[in-house]
Design brief:
Length: 238
């Protein structure tokens, strides 16, 4: 793991202090049923977590069927279905915009269940955020998920293994075809030795068309990764 700079450490310390103040003022609640939670890093109680709609291999295949070069990814696993205005959306929103990076670490631990024992990766890599978005948010939600996965699986995480070679406009309002053109070729691996000869697990928060994951997987393959697998927290609607 790369060490953080002093300003980053300071920001993190300030965030931790602020979150402990918030924990006293507003004790942590389950985002699903509002029951009090003993663990402020957990977004949901066990019961709510069990009730969420799980994604099957068939759901993933269906989503990737029209994606060019989906075979750049040896496997794709997704945990939950994104439910507009439901619990998964609340979790996702808090992780992304609610300044709750610790939720990511916890959720990454849950996502680790999807990674087969037969296929432990050599390296875990989060899909990078745009630099401007990173600066706005102060953290990359996918790095938090990747950290939770790495800790649970006992595998190294490297958040700098793949980077954005160019800024890409937000994908939110783009069609399927435009998303692909927008993100294709947008990633590079700055140091190919980091991934060469390795089985890499790419981590992102949401799978929509899969274009972002394929673009990142292609960059990994070009750098010599033997296999690229992918795992995301949620499957978004299209
Ligand atoms: Zn609950």
């Amino acid at each position: 793991m790369r060490s953080s700079s002093f300003p980053q450490k300071l920001t993190r310390a300030a965030r931790l202090t602020w979150s402990s103040v918030l924990n006293v003022l507003y004790p942590p609640q389950c985002l699903g049923c509002r029951q009090r939670l003993p663990d402020p890093a957990a977004p949901l109680c066990h019961r709510c977590m069990q009730r969420l709609d799980r994604i099957t291999a068939h759901d993933v295949d269906e989503r990737l069927a029209r994606l060019p070069n989906a075979s750049a990814m040896a496997s794709v696993q997704v945990l939950w279905r994104f439910d507009a205005a439901g619990t998964v959306q609340k979790v996702q929103h808090q992780l992304k915009y609610g300044n709750r990076p610790r939720f990511g670490i916890k959720l990454g631990g849950v996502m680790a269940e999807l990674v087969s024992d037969a296929m432990p990766p050599d390296l875990i890599v989060p899909v990078p955020l745009h630099k401007t978005r990173f600066l706005e948010r102060g953290y990359n939600q996918s790095t938090q998920l990747a950290e939770g996965l790495a800790a649970t699986l006992g595998v190294t995480m490297d958040e700098g293994a793949v980077v954005r070679a160019r800024a890409t406009p937000s994908q939110t309002h783009l069609s399927r075809e435009k998303r692909w053109a927008n993100v294709h070729g947008a990633f590079v691996v700055p140091d190919p030795d980091v991934v060469a000869g390795k089985s890499v697990l790419l981590v992102d928060d949401v799978l929509t068309t899969g274009a972002t994951l394929v673009a990142a997987a292609e960059a990994m393959q070009a750098a010599g990764a033997t296999e690229v697998h992918a795992v995301t927290l949620a499957l978004a609607g299209l």
